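User: Reviewer 2 asked us to show a designed sequence for the structure in our supplementary figure. I'm pasting the structure tokens here. Could you produce the per-position amino acids so we can include them in the response letter?
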């Protein structure tokens, strides 16, 4: 069977402990944002998507619903579809509901088993399109696609501004890898959050209900639970800031006092100074022209765009 459902190799746990140890000892201290998404992290992200201040999900879903026919009209049918970092599958469900007859099969890629379970359950209520899953990173999912693509054209969905979590050189590499995994007649539908007012960005990443703060701190809870960490969650404060020079929102966890943290599985002790931070996520914001030029640099052509001017969010369709 082509692209069967698969779990990531059992190295995941090893990657987690190795990455935590390596990134926490960098200057400045960091943790990779892909580790936010254990079961609780994925549920907290779903809650963020419902907050009035985080408009990405609603804006993108509305664009998909409104423009599905225009988006798909020029693409071959039937079409195979794969979504990188599908989350709960809600947006894909909107697409399938609107034009399910176009799709031959769906392949979901996500690092979070909980997200894949939700997405599968969400898609199960839709007309019978075979759904397979791959639990792993975007890069691993793309390698599998390149070697097991089978017949017919593929559309890659990379939504939710997931690309924004990569710094510009890494985003370029990933777009190139997506392009290299595709063949003639394939396409990429890319969702990108756009530069907007500092106030809107600040509220989106530091909401008054503190759901984003809980999402951020949950990473320390996950390290405590899975790696024998001793993080005192109450003494790490959530901080989100817009860095206009780098065009990114940064999320940090700031130690509110001097403290020693142990992580048993990594055989590591870290001394935090008061006000020392762990940089947990970057969300780069784009302008529409920049999205087009990055896509073309990666070797794509086309570049039809649908933009929500109010929420400042863009969907761009590139051709391989
Ligand atoms: C910000 S959420 C977006 C979910 C969905 N695409 C949406 O638009 O609502 C990112 C999703 O990608 C997954 N993810 C994050 N980093 C990943 C990586 N490096 N490789 C694979 N999946 C990743 C997370 O588990 C999560 O489900």
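Assistant: Here is a per-position design you can include in the supplement:
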């Amino acid at each position: 069977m082509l692209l069967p459902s698969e779990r990531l190799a059992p190295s995941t746990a090893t990657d987690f402990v190795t990455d935590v140890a390596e990134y926490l000892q960098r200057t400045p201290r960091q943790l990779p944002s892909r580790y936010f998404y254990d079961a609780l992290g994925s549920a907290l992200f779903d809650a963020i998507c419902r907050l009035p201040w985080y408009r990405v999900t609603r804006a993108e879903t509305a664009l998909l619903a409104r423009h599905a026919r225009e988006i798909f009209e020029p693409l071959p049918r039937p079409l195979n579809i794969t979504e990188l970092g599908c989350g709960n599958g809600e947006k894909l469900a909107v697409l399938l509901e609107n034009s399910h007859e176009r799709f031959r099969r769906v392949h979901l890629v996500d690092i979070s088993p909980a997200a894949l379970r939700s997405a599968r359950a969400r898609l199960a209520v839709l007309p019978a399109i075979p759904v397979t899953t791959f639990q792993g990173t975007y890069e691993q999912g793309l390698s599998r696609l390149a070697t097991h693509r089978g017949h017919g054209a593929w559309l890659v969905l990379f939504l939710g501004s997931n690309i924004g979590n990569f710094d510009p050189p890494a985003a370029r590499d990933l777009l190139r890898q997506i392009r290299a995994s595709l063949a003639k007649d394939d396409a990429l539908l890319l969702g990108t959050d756009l530069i907007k007012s500092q106030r809107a960005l600040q509220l989106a990443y530091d909401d008054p209900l503190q759901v984003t703060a809980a999402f951020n701190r949950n990473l320390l809870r996950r390290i405590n639970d899975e790696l024998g960490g001793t993080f005192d969650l109450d003494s790490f404060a959530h901080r989100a800031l817009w860095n206009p020079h780098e065009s990114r929102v940064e999320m940090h966890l700031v130690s509110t006092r001097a403290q020693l943290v142990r992580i048993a599985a990594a055989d590591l002790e870290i001394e935090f100074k008061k006000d020392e931070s762990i940089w947990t996520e970057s969300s780069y914001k784009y302008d529409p022209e920049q999205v087009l030029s990055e896509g073309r640099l990666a070797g794509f052509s086309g570049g039809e765009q649908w933009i929500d001017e109010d929420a400042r969010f863009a969907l761009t369709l590139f051709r391989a």
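For the response letter, you might also mention the following. The first helix runs from residue 12 to 24. The CA atoms of residues 81 and 229 lie 39 Å apart.
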